[in-house]
Amino acid sequence: MRFKVGDWVKIVNHEKSQRYYEGRSCECLKTVFPHLKNGMVGKIILVNGLNLQHKYGVEFIDEVGGHTCGERGKVGQCWWLPAFFLNKIPRKEAVLYAL
User: Fold this and answer.
1) How far apart are CA 44 and CA 29, in angstroms?
2) What is the DSSP letter of 45?
3) Spatial separation of the C-alpha atoms in residues 85 and 68, rounded to whole Å
């Protein structure tokens, strides 16, 4: 398992490496999740072992036009995301984004 519940993560964009999402090639984060931006920080609140494309439920610090990840997070602050859009960051770094 790459991430676990409670891990802090930051959104990254792997523009130079092609990824496949729902049968189509995507090189850019905004193609698939237009509300999210590089550098946004959140916490893993749920790990879904059944849905590999949207494995990690992330609750972001700010409103992101999302949902609640099955009523586990705050309204509008959550998205299910694949691991390749996320990098784990230390808690101390996450706290700086929250200020």
Assistant:
1) 18
2) E
3) 19
pLDDT digits (tens, 9 = 90+) for 8-44: 999 886 554 445 455 555 656 666 677 788 889 999 9
Give residue 57's pLDDT.
92
The contacts of residue 50 (CB under 8 Å, 6+ apart) are none
Q: What is the DSSP letter of 97?
A: H
Sign of the alpha-carbon dihedral angle for 83, 89, 95, 97 = negative
What residues contact residue 82 under an 8 Å CB cut-off, 6+ apart? 19, 21, 52, 53, 54, 55, 56
Measured between alpha carbons, how far is 44 from 51 in angstroms, rounded to an integer?
Answer: 15
Q: Which amino acid is located at 96 in the chain?
A: L
Give the predicted TM-score (pTM) of the model.
Answer: 0.79
